[in-house]
Amino acid sequence: MLMIILTSAITILLGFAAFSYKNISVFKEKQKNKLSILAAILAENSQAAVSFNDQKTASGLLSALRAEPHIVAAAIYDAGGEVFAQYQEVPARRPTSHNTRAEEFLKDHHLHVYSPVVLDNKIIGTAYIKSDLGELSELIVSYFFFGFLIILFCLGAATLIAARLQKTISNPVLHLTQLAEAVSKQKNYSLRATKKNNDELGHLVERFNEMLSEIQKREEALIRSNDALSRSNRDLEQFAYVASHDLQEPLRVVVNYVDLLSLRTKDMTDPQASQFMGYVKEGAKQSQQLIRDLLEYSRVRREGKLEKVSSEIILKKAIDHLKFAIESSQTQIYYDSLPVVHADPLRLMQLFQNLLGNAIKFHGSKPPEITITAQQKDHECLFTIRDNGIGIDPQYAEQIFVIFKRLHTKHAYPGTGIGLAICKRIVEQHGGKIWVESEVGKGAAFRFTLPILEYEKEFDYARSKNFTY
Amino acid sequence: MKPKKIVSLFLAFVCFFSAVFPFSSIAASSLSEYEVKAAFVYQFTKFMEWPQPADFSNQFTICVVGEHSFQRAFQQLENELVKDQAAKVKMALDLDELDSCQIIFISSSENARTSQILRRVSDKSILTVGEMQGFLEKGGIINFTKEGSKIRFGVNQKSAERVGIKISSKLLTIASQVIS
Questions:
Q1: Inter-chain contact A57–B47, Cβ cutoff 8 Å?
Q2: How far apart are CA A430 and CA A261, in angstroms?
Q3: pLDDT digits (tens, 9 = 90+) for A204-236
Q4: Which chain A positions have a beta carbon within 8 Å of B174's beta carbon?
Q5: Among candidates B110, B95, B106, B116, which has minimal Cα distance to B6?
Q6: Which among A129, A120, A131 is positioned nearest to A40, based on CA atoms?
Q7: Cα(B131)–Cα(B154) distance, rounded to whole angstroms?
């Protein structure tokens, strides 16, 4: 509002100044003209008086100028430039430059006008009038005074108009802005703006509210579908858990009784029978393993809790769990200092364990060498687990993370193909990404990111978005 | 009395007066005075307009009637431009010569002949200038007077209008006497 008033004040001032200047200039010109005309008339009327040396008449003519109070002096000079008749104080001699033509100029805050007395194309004298600038000064003063009043009045009017505008335009816009801010901050889409008028701003408010309603509806739909999804997920989870749990029982029966059978038939000399039983047992054991893995996989889906953990400590724990495998394969493990991250400690350990396990398992001819490094970038921590194993063909780089997907036969390398799928799930639950960079025969570098959360807000937000699966 | 007798008596009277009146004082300063009067006569022309008769000759003639003592003063007007013409100064004596004048200056010495002269030219557009009392009443147009040392003049506008001579009001303003 102050802006409006300031702008108005400046524009009024400039406009008035220009106007005044123009008017004063015009007035000055008029003054000069008036005086010139007076001098010319005086000159004309004094032709006879000068011709016939009649000083009495000439003085009489001059004294008539008394009628104009701003004329301070006047004179008629003869052809030689001497004073012939005068009114008040004048120079005794006419300045030589003013004998042939009419002239007017400002000097010493007075206006001086000369007009030649011409008779029969001959200059026989000069009329001279001197006037003060009283009228001009009066005009300028009145302009200032009047101008001051006008400006005051206009400012008052501007203030009123600005206040009115404020009400009709600025306030509604401000209201909308504040509302938008509130909605963003609180993520509360049920807020609405109040419509005050039926003009364009009123329409804007209506559209704005419509938009908010749309967002709210979608939000609700999203929540609903989220709920539905999580419900169905939980059901599936439950189903998987129960199924696998219940599946284990019959399998255990099979394994047990096959064991018993093999004991009983140990003495039998049918070699194929033992072979067959061996196959059965292996198959059952494999199913058991599969089911166990499935159980494991489904368990990973359950809610985890984010904590600030030292990834180095977790890694050490994972290495400890794999102690036997490491020693028996003569694996060398190297790692830098690893940072503190936000993660579920159990899941992180599982992640390390799986990846390390794979690195040990898929070794080549040389003893496995594993290097674990981490680098921080923006809000992420990038972990790299590099091994010198058999490597992976890049065309399978994505497939290996698919559940139950195996690149090698189970005779070559054991496992159900669930390990990397679990790793992927864990990493994605933390809001990160996992991938592999490798070539056949050149080892593999498994890399995954874990976000490092700076602010509590993002922490909560990530939690609410990622963990209600 | 018969009119002819009155005129001759009057003329005699005028002659007597002109003889008795002290010319000497006038004669002593006569040159400067007549120079002024000649100049005035010249200036008069700038404030007057003559009618344009068909036989307006290319000459502007100023005729001087009277004593020759001021001849030189008026001679100065010779060839001066009057109404875009070169002025000629004639010292006229005969009445017949007066017809071709535009201005006739009758000096005070011609007291006796004044009325006769005025009568003679009364129907012509001639500026008659005199320097005697009663000149205007007799029908003259301009008459010189003296106020102390200052030379003044009176104007008979009626006489001027009668013969078609227009006199500017600027001149009338400074005249000491105006008969209209």
A1: no
A2: 48
A3: 888 888 999 999 899 899 999 999 998 888 888
A4: 48-49, 52, 54, 57
A5: B116
A6: A129
A7: 10
For B170, name the nearest residue in chain A, comparing CA atoms only.
Answer: A48
Q: C-alpha angle with apex B72: B71 to B73, nearest 5 degrees?
A: 95
Residues contacting A442, CB < 8 A, separation 6+: A391
Q: Residue A51 and residue B168: Cβ atoms within 8 Å?
A: no
The reply to whether B149 touches chain A by the CB within 8 Å rule is no
B170–A47 CB contact, under 8 Å: yes
Residues A319, A333 contacting (CB under 8 angstroms): yes
Q: Which of B47, B168, B173 sits opposite A57 (nearest CB)?
A: B173
**Residue A166 gets which letter from DSSP?**
I
Asked if residues B86 and B111 have their Cβ atoms less than 8 Å apart, the reply is no
pLDDT in tens, B153-175: 999 999 999 999 999 999 998 99
Handedness of CA A58, A64, A66, A69 (dihedral sign): negative
Question: Model-level pTM?
Answer: 0.50
A→B interface, C-beta within 8 Å? 45, 47-49, 51-52, 54, 57, 119-120
Q: Kindly compute the dihedral angle of the four CA atoms of residues A48, A53, A54, A56, in this order, to the nearest 10 degrees.
A: 130
> Residue A82: pLDDT above 80?
yes
Given strand A332-335, what is the order of strands in its sheet? A332-335, A369-377, A380-387, A444-451, A434-438
Q: Quick check: A371 pLDDT over 70?
A: yes
